[in-house]
Amino acid sequence: MKQFTIFGVILALLVAYSSVFVVKEGQRGIVMQFGKVKRSDDGEARVYEPGLQFKVPFIDSVRRLDARIQTLDGNADRFVTSEKKDLIIDSYVKWRISDFSQFYLRTGGGSVAQAELLLTRKINNGLRSEIGARTIRDIVSGERGQVMEDALKRMARSAEIGIEVLDVRIKQINLPDEVSNSIFQRMRAERLAVAKEHRSQGQEQAEIIRANVDRRVNVMLADADKRGREMRGEGDATAAKIYADAYKKDPDFYKFWRSLRAYRNSFETGGDVMVLDPNSEFFRYMKEPVSN
What is the CB neighbour count within 10 angstroms for residue 61? Predict the structure, then answer.
């Protein structure tokens, strides 16, 4: 009897242990009974909230699913715009499970990898449709938000796999390498053309400035030369007046002084040869004494 009692206690403990389960915070639980999702009387699948829960021992099995918001951040993919231009777009999606039993059945036992695979196909199809209806300029500049909003509306149709898409975002938009290179070369050619135009305009302005400076210099030199000539003329006139006044005061002395200057200029070098008549007027003051 004692052995039966121990066996009964152990069996009771096993039954009690197998009849309870714990759902952690951030999870939801569903119970499988005979390979099917256990449902309530109204036909809806029973979803167990976090905490201590009960099930039928040895018959029911529990599947715990993550109820938190998930991020699907896949690889960048190539899309075609309405202009038949390729774009490399990197995007991500925020999602969570909305129907746990549907999610479990559609993803082969609650596989997140399988769910993301199915969701990636839907995202790419939705983005492909939205991007294919727009130009590169629309996508890059003004309508990126509209693209994501429309794609999010398309993702709302993902309820058949038990997923609710919360947000769709485009992280980065790039051009393929071959397109980027051609655009870079075109931009480089445009910049070179602009630089050449600026250089030609600068040279034109430099020529204008140099011409203006040269003109001003020539005007200044002409004015200075004119002023110099005027001053020399005034000086010559003053000197002539002084000579004339001096000549009027003593004409004989003036003639004597002028002859002395002529003698000095003629005999200054000592190597000059002059052929003159000794009785010429030039030698007058050498032959006659100067009168007081």
Answer: 16
Mapping DSSP to helix (H, G, I), strand (E, B) and coil, where does residue 112 land?
helix
With both helix axes pointing from N to C terminus, report the angle between 177-249 and 251-267 in degrees, rounded to the nearest 10.
130
Rg (CA), the chain: 57
Element (H, E) at 97: strand 86-97
Which residues lie closer than 8 Å to 162 by C-beta, 6 or more apart?
97, 98, 99, 100, 101, 102, 103, 104, 106, 107
- On whether the CB atoms of residues 252 and 291 are closer than 8 A, the answer is yes
Residue 282 has what DSSP assignment?
G
Q: What is the pLDDT of residues 42-89, one digit of tens each?
A: 667 778 788 887 777 777 778 888 888 988 887 888 888 888 888 888
**68-91 as b/e, with b when 16 or more CB fall inside 10 Å?**
eebebeeeeeebebeeeeebbbeb
C-alpha 120/C-alpha 209 separation (Å) is 66
pLDDT at res. 220: 92
pTM recorded for the entire structure: 0.53
pLDDT above 60: residue 124:
yes
Amino acid at 52: L
58 to 7, 78, 160, 187: CA distances (angstroms): 17, 51, 31, 72
Distance of CA 15 to the CA centre of its chain: 69
Q: Residue ranges of the alpha helices (H) in 19-165?
A: 100-106, 112-132, 136-137, 144-155
Q: Do the Cβ atoms of 151 and 168 come closer than 8 Å?
A: yes
Q: What is the pLDDT of residue 209?
A: 92
